[in-house]
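Hi everyone,

Forwarding the result from last night's run.
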Amino acid sequence: MPEPFRTSRLVEFHDTDMAGIMHFASFLVYMESAEHELYRSLGMSIHAIVEDEHISFPRVSASCEFFSPARCEDVLDIAVAVTRIGGKSVSYEFRFTHGGREIAVGKMTAVCCRVRPGHPPVSRSIPVEIADKLRAYAVTPER
């Protein structure tokens, strides 16, 4: 099984509540940021021109389960695994730890869409070159 993509992030003051504990909504921001880092590490962008179309990956589902608090100035380790690559969607799992302590596990699904100014996003197949690169971190790489 491939190793997950790994990154880290400092919990900043603005990411916390009055008690200095990381606010639940900040985890979703960190998940998106880690996803973007994964794409950049593969030489891609979450916004790309492919086959003369501007494509992006809007989220259709996100969740997070919390186990232990993260506090201001903790450095969180984030492991990102691709849990599913479908014809039009990709799903991820994000494992947050600090000093080996499990903090949270998040899940997110995004759909590949053609985006044009003034028009709603329209789903489309994930380009083969993107799916092939994402498989480097896929725990279940079937399309």
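The chain has one domain: 5-137.

Cheers,
N.
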